[in-house]
Design a protein that fits this description.
The structure is a single chain. Helix content is about 35%, strand content about 25%. By secondary structure, the chain is an alpha/beta fold. Strands 3-2-1-4-5-7-6 form a seven-stranded mixed beta sheet, with helices on both faces. Strand 4 (about 100-105), helix 5 and strand 5 (about 125-135) form a beta-alpha-beta unit. It is globular, with a radius of gyration of 16 Å. The N and C termini lie far apart (about 35 Å).
């Protein structure tokens, strides 16, 4: 990982993913969480202001040390203690059946083996536990998908390995979880190639 990825990109992401639209989306996705929660792709802690009262603990996984520095003030202000437990969503350093829910917001686009990450999510969730997510990915429209495929090599280079064209539904189900709720839409004020959204809940079984 080079200087740009280590030092610059986390600051860009901290700004780009902290808009009125993303804040509204985060609040909606986080609102149903309760109990012991694990967040993969914690980043700079942008979800922390929205923790509902039912959350009793929060564990975080993220590879970026710079993002963790940017998260310091949000961690200090959080309603519950925040424990950073690991760096790699593909190898979660937690026991089987150890959390009630997992949160992923704009994360599965970047994890190298996203299916492996979902298998790990399923492993650490208690039976009946839930994955709450919002992700961008492969669009339903063929014309948009063509543009996503064309733009993806550039996107990967400038956005730290982020992919525009991943099929999030397939990733979640191939990882062994069942989709219980899914909303597909285009994010307002974004080009369709970048704003094809998957928002939902999957259940461990």
């Amino acid at each position: 990982m080079g200087w740009y990825e280590r030092r610059v990109l986390p600051r860009i992401i901290n700004k780009v993913l902290d808009t009125k639209q993303t804040r509204e989306t985060r609040e909606r996705v986080v609102s149903a969480l309760s109990g012991e929660v694990l967040e993969i792709g914690f980043g700079s802690g942008l979800n922390l202001p929205y923790l509902p009262d039912g959350v009793t603990s929060w564990k975080a996984v993220d590879p970026s040390g710079e993002a963790a520095k940017l998260a310091a003030s949000r961690i200090a202000a959080a309603r519950v203690p925040i424990e950073v437990v690991g760096l790699d969503g593909q190898k979660l350093p937690l026991p089987d059946d150890s959390v009630d829910a997992v949160l992923s917001t704009w994360t599965l686009c970047t994890i190298p083996d996203a299916v492996a990450a979902i298998r790990e999510v399923r492993r650490v969730l208690r039976p009946g536990g839930t994955l709450h997510f919002v992700e961008h990915g492969k669009a339903d429209e063929a014309g948009v998908r063509k543009w996503q495929d064309r733009l993806n090599p550039v996107q990967r280079r400038i956005a730290g390995g982020c992919n525009l064209n991943r099929d999030i539904t397939a990733i979640v189900t191939d990882g062994g979880m069942s989709m219980s709720k899914l909303n597909r839409y285009y994010a307002a004020a974004e080009p369709k190639a970048f704003g094809a959204m998957y928002e939902g809940v999957a259940v461990a079984h």
